[in-house]
Amino acid sequence: MLKEIIEDVFRNDYKNFKSYLVSRFDHINEYDAEDIIQQTVVKLLYKGNDALSIQNMTSYIYKSIRNGAYDLLKKRNREILGDELPDGETLTAEDELLIKELKNVLKEAIDKLDEKSRFIFIETELKGKSYKTVSVETGIKLGTLLSRKSRAMKKLEQILKDYVKGAI
């Protein structure tokens, strides 16, 4: 029954979903939109009978694909910040040295975190996983993960403040 409901919604609204993503998000192309929509279908099917309790399937799917687009854009921003420059821009030798130094400072700061805080920071900030995903994968309660991440961020903030003070 769930499969039929999902097939019906996607048969009727697939083009609308795709159009919504491409028009609403500047950096989402048609291929990205198709991937996001397919991921949403898989997630819905994975929910099984729990998905039958969704009151408005179309609205739920719009919200899911919007969140999928945000996740993709966040992931891309992490990649761009790490490796790429906008077209036509180049780095000076000084810029490259500063970036290398900052990466080293950040790595050292992350290494100073306790193991549990470092783990959640890396999983959510560097790998782009959601807290819910990490919770499911590890069996650790969501509140515990949020608390550990908060401690990690406070510790990193302090370490980096000390670095900035020393650099001035």
What does this structure look like?
The chain has helices at 2-24, 30-47, 57-83, 93-111, 115-126, 131-138, 142-167. The radius of gyration is 21 Å and the shape is flat. With 168 residues, the protein is mostly helical. The protein has two domains: 1-84; 89-168, Orthogonal Bundle (Arc Repressor Mutant, subunit A), CATH 1.10.10. Helix 1 packs antiparallel against helix 2. It is 79% helix and 0% strand.
Domain unit count: 2
Chain-averaged pLDDT: 83
Gross morphology: flat
Share of residues in helices: over 70%
Please compute the radius of gyration using only Cα atoms: 21 Å
Question: What is the topological layout?
Answer:
Layout: H1 2-24, H2 30-47, H3 57-83, H4 93-111, H5 115-126, H6 131-138, H7 142-167
Which features characterize this protein?
flat; 7 helices; mainly alpha; 168 residues; Arc Repressor Mutant, subunit A
